[in-house]
Each structure stands twice: as C-alpha cells, then as structure tokens.
Amino acid sequence: MVEQLDKGYLFTDIGALEVAGTEDGIVSVTFVENVDTGAACVTSVVQQCITELSQYFGGRRTTFAVRLDPGGTEFRRLVWHALRRIPFGQMTSYRDVAVAIDRPKSARAVGGAVGHNPIGIIVPCHRVIGSDGSLTGYAGGLDRKRWLLEHERRVLAARG
Question: Which residues form the catalytic set?
C-alpha cells in the first residue's frame, strides 16, 4: 500500500511554504506561489512540521525534531545530513561541506546536492554560501535566503 502524501501550508512574511509528507516523515518543504485549496492537513508529522516552522519564524525554535523522509541518492542524503549540522545563524561554504563529508574535492557535486534539497529551512541549505562569502543560488530566491540569514542573526542577537 502506498501512503497518501499529505500537504499543509504555512504563510510567512516571505511567502507561502508547502509542507508535504506522510506518517514516515516530511518529504518536502518548499516556497510556492499557489496553494492547493483542496489540501487537508491530517498527517500528524505534517502538522508537527508546520508547528515547528511557525516557531522558527516566530524566533522560538532553532532546531527541528520532525522526522524527515527526503528520498534522494546516498550522496545527496549524506550532504543533506551534513547541512543539518550547520548551527543556527552560522554559514558555511560548499567546500566546507565537502570536507565535512570527507570528500574534499566534491564541492561542485555538493552544490548540486544542495540545489536539489527538497526540505528547505529544516535542511538549512540557505546557510551555504560561496567560498568568497557571496550569497549563491537558493531555490526560494536570494531575497528569501538573505531574509532567512538575517532572521537567524536577529534571533541570536535577541537571545544575547
């Protein structure tokens, strides 16, 4: 039996987030322009994810506990796991992620895996920047990436 994919939405200052998942875990968190008005969020994991994201945007959460089920290749899952270890409010480069996964010559492949991250914010690809400190691509757009990084800085500053 194939589990039904459940969807729910969170409306933030920087746009609508669509959260999709099953009872096994979250499969995607993406910014969307249009919402599925027929979606009924009934899966407890999706509801938990929306609650945790709401807390993140409200400055009350810096880590996530919701179960994830992103799919992907073994290499991509390795990269995404490394992204989850980037501390809240900090940034790192693609090269640093490549070193962290013990594949120092794979920065370009890491960039590809980061670009295919289906679970935005929770798998914090927005914290990955170019080696020269520049903001690089983000599926949600560079304005959102900049906002998320500033949000995390503000939260940390408010906590002293």
Answer: 125
